[in-house]
Amino acid sequence: MTDLTLLPFAVPAVSRNKVEIAFDGGRLSSDGGVVLLREAERRLGIARRLAACIRDRRNPMRIDHTVEDMLRLRMFAIAAGYEDADDCDFLRHDPVFKMAVGRAPESGRPLCSQPTMSRLENTPSRIEVARLMAAMVDMFCASFARPPQSITLDIDDTVDEVHGHQQLSLFNAHYDARCFQPIHVYDAATGRPVAVILRQGATPTGREARTVLKALVRRIRRHWPCVRITVRGDSHYGRPEAMAWCEANGVDYIFGLAGNAVLHGLVRDTSDDLCVGAPKPRPTSCAPTLKSTTAPNRGNRPVR
After folding, report:
1. Can you give the residue ranges of every domain in the chain?
2. Which has the least CB within 10 A, 3, 95, 251, 290?
3. CA atoms of 151 and 230, how far apart (whole Å)
4. Residue 291: count of CB within 10 angstroms of its CB
5. Using CA atoms, how far apart are residues 139 and 48, in angstroms rounded to an integer?
């Protein structure tokens, strides 16, 4: 729009000062909350911990953007609702994102572009991806002032629909979409994230569930050797491989079981009794109840 629109009224002066109205505010941003995220990230050191897990194979003399800075930009962009790496092409000039990464909003160099971010996302090897998960578990354990006596971990997977044919994405008939199904693990008491594992869009197998639990529990016990761990999950985590490993390694578990005729027959009597049985009376007081006794010197009158 190049046409100038004049105001239909005159703006009065204020304290003999001329007032001008303009709509060319310069470098603006609608993501001011990213600055608060930057402060939280700085205190936790998330980008620094994760960057240490990835080997930078680039020529040091030709590096403009460190792995740590690129991770910050990607994390802040996702948190602000920019899911795709394509968004980096215009976010690299955003003054708030530049400040969040540690650069001056006006004079600082632009942040990394989409091609650079895409190369970073394809850089980690399988071992480095495992190290990234271990770093998340370490941050979870470090968030406690003292080791807890017990923790309950909720494990589940969620759908992450994709556009196109990205690597590891599969068509899932249940969600009627092509997707990933990353595994999420949270602490039930505090809601803190423990680990997130990106994986293909299919239900986890018993071996995969066992592998995830094995790596997760062993990493936690490196920090808290005596902690009692309980794992809760849906029926597709209640596989023989996962349950056998939990029983062999002192891990309690609560897994759902998919219904079938045999299982229904085993629990039918118990479930019917719970549904129609009369509830037992509950005591109205926590004080101990004294039984009646007989006082021989009072004509065998009961005394309470």
Report:
1. 34-121, 144-261
2. 3
3. 6
4. 5
5. 12
Distance CA 81, CA 93 (A): 17
Pairing verdict, β 160-161 and 177-180: antiparallel
Residues forming beta bridges with residue 229, ordered by sequence position: 151
Superfamily of domain 144-261: Ribonuclease H-like superfamily/Ribonuclease H (3.30.420.10)
CB-side exposure of 220: number of CA atoms within 13 Å?
A: 28
140: amino acid identity, one letter: F
d(CA 273, CA 278): 9
What are the b/e assignments for 102-136, b being 16+ CB within 10 Å? ebeeeeeebbbbbebbeebeeebeeeeeebbbbbb
Q: Which two tokens stand for residue 298?
A: 């009072």
User: Could you tell me if 216 and 242 are in contact, meaning their C-beta atoms sit under 8 angstroms apart?
Assistant: no
Express each pLDDT in 142-187 by its tens digit: 999 999 999 999 999 988 888 877 777 888 888 888 899 999 999 9
Q: What percent of the chain has pLDDT over 90?
A: 53
Q: For the chain, what's the residue count? A: 304
